[in-house]
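Help! Submission page says 'invalid entity' but I think these are all valid:
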Amino acid sequence: MKETSGRRRFLKSAAALGAAIPAGAAAQSKPAPNVDHDKQRAQHMRAAAAQPRPYMFLSQTEVAFLDAAVSHLIPKDELGPGAKEAGVTYFIDQQLFGGYGSMAKKYTQGPWPEGTPQQGYQSPLTPAAVYRAGIRDTNEYCKKTHGKTFDALSRAQQEEVLKGLDGGKIELEQVRSQFFFNMLLANTVEGFFADPVYGGNRDKAGWKLVGFPGVAAVYTPFIEKHNVPYRAQPVSIADITQKIAQVDEHGHAIHVMLDDDQAGV
Amino acid sequence: MATKLKGVDVVTVGVGLTATILAQELAATGLKVVGLERGRWRDTDPDFAMPGAHDELKYVRRHELMQDLSKETITFRNNANELALPMRDLGSFRPGEGVGGAAVHWGAVTWRFFPWDFQTKTKTLERYGPKQVAEDCTMQDWGVTYEELEPHFDRFEYLYGVSGKAGNLKGKIVEGGNRFEGPRSREFPNPPLKTPHSSALFARAAQSLSYKTFPVPSAANSRAYKNEYGQTINACVYCGYCQFFACEMGAKASPQTTVLPVLMQNKNFELRTMCNVVKVNLDSEKKRAVSVTYVDSRGREFEQPAELILLTSYVLNNCRLMLLSGIGKPYDPVANTGVVGRNYAYQTPSNVNLFFDDKVLNGFMGAGGNATGIDDFNGDNFDHTGLGFIGGGNINCGSGATRPIEVRPVPPGTPRWGSEWKKAVAKYFTRSCSIAIQGACQSYRGNYLDLDPTYRDAYGLPLLRMTFDRRENEHKMSVYITNKAAEIGKAMGASKMNVNPRTGKYTIVPYQSTHNTGGTVMGADPNTSVVNKYLQSWDVHNVFAISAGAFPQNGGYNPTGTVGALTFQALEAIKTKYLKRPGALV
């Protein structure tokens, strides 16, 4: 049931975005539904979603680990998709493959004494190496303790392992468990809420959950409307570059407002 | 081997907020000015253009506009007994890199420090006696007064189009403005920004507790505004991508919108980007600077001779360059002698997160400084007798910082992850706000900057080493003021609150503010200051160091307005005194 209503909401929002909006249309206007377009677009989106994403850094074992782990950190529930459904594993893959993973803008020269908590990141490992070591060590721990890798454990066992990493109760060999866990949690939140151009936050699941409109509109007429919810169909950077969303003369999004049903609040 | 270039009149090290003003004014007098910037050229279009400008991951988490630590960072420790280790990732503060510096991604809040701030020591001793002050506290007067700086504050505010409401016009208290501020010679150039819901709630609650509220001054311009250089700053559209972002509207004043377009037209000015100054070279007597050495993006080393060398980079770089160049005596905390690196301080921010079950705040709308504040607990505006601390902080509540990756507070007791966390984030993202406190920080003997013995930058030079921790004075102050803020929060009708005073050890990890001060402090006494009241080096007269490094201690306000005033203070002295007769001005 929940799935269905989520799907219905998705279809409606896809329609809202895809429908042609006359130039200069007011932000508050609600486009008429276009059933044919709606169907076509949904088919297209399903086909796109079905295509395997090209992982650049993670191995299949690591993908399985992260899919399982992030589904606990931000689970799918009655409020909507979780981190796994939002493509967070793919987001993390892309980040680790890029400058973030190799600490391109960070100081990496040694020596690397462990330091105090106040001194922050002091690992000789890059984030990419932290994931590689952390996933491997956690899987080793799971095999030793439960006879299976993390992804093959029951949900309850997985939850227990994650709590063990979070609290530092499980010791890993190559990387401190809390250090690994905190990085995983931070990146999961990033992937859930970052602009979808980075591969996570699919269908703007994170933004829809909290009511964040993404790329901003001109809020001048709205900022002094106190206590009035602002329920807009979120707009991503790609929506604008692909001309799916309309913009004003400065490039701000012209938001399509949702009715209460679509807003899901 | 450095290639020696043809000499010029003036070199600026860094091309940010202070350098652009100085270069514009000095080039206009006919002097040949070269701006050396370690980062790249950046302009409103295409660098800050939509839709890419609204990308939280890129700008807030991946630090697109900020310092590249792979080339240069600092090392840090809480005290001299620890081993300082490199700041490998940006956390606590976020300096800029590239043309415009940190004034591209700043939060636009533009205060004038109080008259009291410039005479902290004298006024504190007068009112409370020496027992109010910790034994190792090295707070001191600035060697310049508010009255001397007033015209310079005024000029900076009119250059940057600051939006606000005067509370004290030539000594007359004006309703609706900040009655605690120093006297202004005229009203702000632009009216205050519009009032978001959180600010309106805060104002009503604070007034019910008899506090005097006022709109926080912001360089996010409230209307289209033309400054003295004929540059138009656009009207803010409250998009909420302000601090840590470049403004796609050209509405948040920055060097790009206020000065650079006209400066770049001036034939007397030459900008060289991707040029990192590694040393100021002195004559054999060490009394005069003759040139700077810099390395360009192809690894070539150049020596640029100049008559006047303006250190206009960030606080930390200014201090480091003086240490690397042997300008002024380095501070020795054990002997308590020397000056360069002395009195490093860093603000004591704290906050109260408020959660509402019956109100929507839409905190993703707004701008930097789009807030209402009170100063009843700032500076020496309240009686500190018996409180065990000096100083205070501005308390304010605004809108425009709520973005889901970094700012999505959850009520106390919420787990860090899982379904409960998700529910709380979903519920409170648009139903929460924060009261923020810009807590001051005094200077202490054991808090200082020097050169690290181990770690080096990409050019093989020692990193700057920061030794810093806040003291009991700051912790007591933070608890006291944060509790006052919590009382306001309660009166605002919050159903739940996180009260977060700043106590415990200073950590370089979570973001606090890019409000580092000291290290190259100004003053009236060369034994306790690096530069005189005109920001001129006591030791090398043709070197001026212009940054918040000049602050002898940190105030309860964001620093940029005061940095702007000091820039014009130095400029006036250079134009009217130094150029006529180069030499020590004091």
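Support: the input was valid. A stray whitespace character was the problem, and the output above is from the cleaned input. Residues 472-491 of chain B form the longest helix (20 residues).
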